[in-house]
Amino acid sequence: MPFYVPRNGSIALSEDHMKVLLKRYDKDGDGRLSKKELQAAFRNSGLHFSGFRARRALHHADSNHDGFIGNDEMKELVIYAARWGFTVK
């Protein structure tokens, strides 16, 4: 199920739904999201400047500075991404 930036007729996602959708982009199955995986998630959501947004999301949510968003950091990523108003149709 793709997710989108708000448009007419869209429904706001809960934090739990956003976590599930973002975790789908963990292509290597290591339980973490890399910058490349975040960029794909943002690009597929229809956001412009997906590379920039992925860097900013990592900067904001990567508390241990390992270059990945792990399960323990996912809540901060979701809070940060929610500012952009992710929605699903």
* Proper CATH architecture: Orthogonal Bundle
Q: Give the CA-based shape.
A: globular
Classify the secondary structure makeup into a structural class. mainly alpha
End-to-end distance: 9 Å
Mean pLDDT: 81
The first-level CATH class name: Mainly Alpha
Order of helices and strands: EHHHHE
The CATH superfamily is EF-hand
Please give the order of strands in the largest beta sheet. 1-2
Characterize the main sheet: 2 strands, antiparallel
Give the count of structural domains.
1
Number of strands: 2
Structure, described:
The protein is globular, with a radius of gyration of 12 Å. α2 crosses α3 and α3 crosses α4. It is built from four helices and two strands; from the N terminus they run βααααβ. The protein has one domain: EF-hand (Recoverin, domain 1, Orthogonal Bundle). By secondary structure, it is mainly α. It has a two-stranded antiparallel ribbon.
SSE layout and pairings?
Layout: E1 11-12, H1 15-23, H2 35-44, H3 50-61, H4 74-82, E2 87-88
Antiparallel strand pairs: 1-2
Helix pairs in contact: 2-3, 3-4
Task: Supply database-style keywords.
Recoverin, domain 1; 4 helices; 45% helix; disordered N terminus; calcium ion binding; EF-hand-dom_pair; EF-hand domain-containing protein; calcium; EF_Hand_1_Ca_BS
Quick gist of this model?
By secondary structure, the protein is mainly alpha-helical. The protein contains 4 helices and 2 strands.
